[in-house]
Amino acid sequence: MKITMIGTGYVGLVSGTCFAELGFETVCVDKNPQKIETLNNGGVPIFEPGLDELIKRQVEGKRLSFTTDVASAVQQADIVFIGVGTPTSADGMSTDLSYVESAAKDIAENLKGYTAVVVKSTVPVGTCRHVESIIRKANPKAEFNICSNPEFLREGSAIQDFLAPDRVVVGTDNPKSKALLQKLYSPLEKKGHSVLFTKIESSELIKYAANAFLATKISFINQIADLAEKVGADVSDIALGIGLDNRIGKKFLQAGPGYGGSCFPKDTKSLATTAKQFDCPITIVDAVIQANEDRKKAMAQRVSDAFNSKTSGKTIAVLGVAFKPNTDDMRDAPALDILPALIEMGFSLKAYDPEATEEAKKILKQSEITWCNTKEDALQNSDALLVLTEWDEFMALTPGVLEQYLNTKTVIDLRNIFNVEDMTQAGFTYISIGKKPHFPLKEINIKSCNN
């Protein structure tokens, strides 16, 4: 059985490579010749731990190849996946389906023999039917069926998520396409991983419902963290206390500066838009979207408060700008709101990220940001440390190390990676999330993130 994956972005490249790992001959297609040239020369256009080694192994095993030739790739395939990007539209809320529609037209022109056409991109409910109509209109004689197969890949652990998934979801209403997808995922099913077959519309909506629920957990614990600060509680204890309830679970209860990345921001907005289009607003999701936007914008105030608003001429060392560790993804990262706000307050910034620096430079072009090659360079002679991403190498920093580099003992830890007692005993001004701030010299009030 031969697989074609249209799109070599995050979803397409990881999924295509992992299908090859399962033993299927897979061709990944992209219209960008530079990207295909990079892949054919052994390069990888995205950072994902372990992906470069896995691609190399599959290419050497003749199970994985890359091409710009859509026609030949579609014609030879038993299953064609659409794994292109689905960014937020210019209106800031709905989903841009132009890449999906373009892929559908390319597929329609080149179908040969029976083919299962599978939408793996994250798309609003009803998109698969739309893709089906595009193909049938362009090629009425085509032998195919449309399916939905959303991805559930976390950046930083995508390979593990694909090869050892919590579940695989497939939406189809045709026995022939169902048989092909059963064969495709049989290696995972034999290892005990669940494969759930549903209606197409259910499959599409499962993806959005899952991400919206997780985003809700994040916004919930962030607002609980605000209350914890006011009443003298510790959000870490609260998260553990409620997370031990197996109806709630421990995951996604880490308080921080708000969610970002390629999925949660655009998926919550897309779900909210779809719900309104069907006159069925999901007000909980609306509130989550607003709470997250407010939170990211308010985080800079914590830094200003640490200096009693005397920000002019102060330099902040910023460790981490990617939206999460083990990725170079800057899409909707909290840093994109926080850093410009700090600059507007009068701060100068020295920033370092192990992987996302080059991506960040393309977006954050302010002259007030100095991009550093090491965390030590960022810390040297800075007036405070601001932690935005919880990379492992930052967690190894100790108060003793920090005071060797910083001008003042001031740390604003928006990921709670340091121990409060250690910082307190070392005499640091330590501001974290959901814990009472510690100010050795004098107490100042941290404004609520909702203000």
Q: Can you tell me about this structure?
A:
The chain has 2 domains: 197 residues, NAD(P)-binding Rossmann-like Domain (Rossmann fold); 210 residues, Rossmann fold, CATH 3.40.50.720. The chain contains 18 helices and 14 strands. The strands form 3 sheets. The chain has a 6-stranded parallel beta sheet with strand order 3-2-1-4-5-6, sandwiched between helices. Strands 11-10-9-12-13-14 form a 6-stranded parallel beta sheet. The chain has 451 residues and is an alpha/beta fold. Helix 6 links the parallel strand 5 and strand 6. 45% of the residues lie in helices and 14% in strands.
Provide a quick synopsis of the model:
The chain is built from 18 helices and 14 strands. With 451 residues, it is an alpha/beta fold. It folds into two domains: 2-198, NAD(P)-binding Rossmann-like Domain (Rossmann fold); 242-451, Rossmann fold, CATH 3.40.50.
